Amino acid sequence: MQSSEADSESLTARPQTAERARDATRGFLAAVAPASRPEVDAVLLVVSELVTNALRHAGGVTRFRLVAGPGTVTVSVDDPSRVAPRPLSRDVGRPGGFGWHLVRALSAEVQVRIRPGGKTVSAVLPLPH
Q: Which residues have a Cβ under 8 Å from the Cβ of 128 and sit 6 or more positions away?
């Protein structure tokens, strides 16, 4: 579902895989802003990490939302867990554990909101128009 308000565009979905979330994001970004490849890649990586974390560690994705405003895109993922994500210690000898670090490094802002029935993790990234 895509909607338009004043200066923003949004998409709300409930993807069951990170691949479907990335596909929806590619289509959304192509429609709202012809951003350069590095910005698109950063958004796709954050989408992939947030959705994968919800699927692996938090009981699934209950809502996935993209909102493009002037110069930014906000990625929000809801899940049924009330446990906030936490960074793991970086251990190059162990696979995984780098996702939350990447999300925070690529995003201008990251917010975790615990709410009844779960949480929402949101990341704001630059998206030049």
A: 33, 35, 36, 39, 71
Q: What is the pLDDT of residue 6?
A: 46
Distance CA 5, CA 17 (A): 28
The average confidence (pLDDT) of the chain is 86
- The CATH number of whichever domain residue 75 belongs to comes to 3.30.565.10
- Domain total of the chain: 1
Task: State residue 121's pLDDT score.
Answer: 97
**Domain interval for residue 93:** 2-126
Q: What are the phi and psi torsion angles at 37 (to 5°)? A: -55, -45
Record the pTM: 0.85
pLDDT score for 2:
44
Written as six digits, the tokens of 77 are 């993922």
Tokens representing 27 are 């289509």
In the chain, alpha helices (H): 18-32, 37-57, 99-106
- Encoded tokens for 109: 């802002």
